[in-house]
Amino acid sequence: MIKAIIVDDEPAVSEILTFFIKKNELPIEIVGIAEDGQEAIALIGQEKPRLVFLDIQMPVMNGFEVMQRSNSETDFIIITAFESFSYAQKALRLGAKDILLKPIQYEQFTEALTRAIGWQFTGNATVNGVLEYIHSHYAEKIDLTTLADISYSTPSQIARLFKKYMDSTVMTYVHKVRIEKAMTLLESGEASVKEAALLSGYESLNNFYKYFKQHTGMTPAAFCEKKS
Prior knowledge:
CATH topology of the largest domain: Rossmann fold
Radius of gyration: 20 Å
Domain HTH araC/xylS-type: 128-226
Number of domains: 3
CATH superfamily of the largest domain: Response regulator
InterPro entries: CheY-like_superfamily, Homeodomain-like_sf, HTH_AraC, HTH_AraC-typ_CS, Sig_transdc_resp-reg_receiver
Number of strands: 5
GO molecular function, one term: sequence-specific DNA binding
CATH class of the largest domain: Alpha Beta
Distance between the termini: 37 Å
Strand content: 5-15%
Domain Response regulatory: 3-117
Oligomer: single chain
Pfam families: HTH_18 (PF12833), Response_reg (PF00072)
Mean pLDDT: 91
Number of helices: 12
Structural class: alpha/beta
Low-confidence stretches: none
Shape: globular
Largest sheet: 5 strands, parallel
C-alpha cells in the first residue's frame, strides 16, 4: 500500500479524498490527517509517507514551509482554490508533483496520482495492488506465485486479470519497469551499466542486456554513448 497523509484545514477535503480512495479500492492508505503545517511536519516525520496531499493556505505554517522542511523522498500533491493558483505554481517550482483544484473531481484526482507515482491505476483493485507491488519491489525477485500470495489469489487468476486490464503479461510489465529504472540511472550518470543492472533487479548481466535491447532497441553501452 502507498502511505499517504492529507493536510488541509477543511474537513470536507479530507472526506472527499478518503471517499475516492475507498470507493475505487485504490492501494493507498491514509495514515494521518493534519489541519495545519506544524501538525503536518510532525506527522510526516512520524509516518514517512510516500504521498502528501497538501493545502497551501493553512494556519500556523503554510504549505511552502512544509515542503521545504520535509524529507525529499516525500511526493506532494498540492490542493488549492482557483484564486490561489499563483501559489500553486510556486509549489511546483519547489518540487510538487501536481495540483488539485477545489472542488476536487475524481478524474483530476487520478490524473494527479498518476503523475505523482509514475503509473496509472486500473479499474480492478487486485491489479492495482499488483502494480503497486511491482513498482515498489522491482529490484527483488518477482513471480506470479509471489504476486498471488500478496493478493490472496492464485497465479492463474493474477495472470488473467493482469492481461485483461494491462494488455500485457506480468513479466513483460516487470521487465519494462526494471529497464525504465535502469535507463533513468544510466541517464543520470548515477550508476555504471553493471550497477544499473543490479539496482534494477538483474543479477545476470546477460539477462540485463537481453531485456534492455528488447525494450530500447540498443545495448546499454550504445544507450550511454547516445546520451553522453
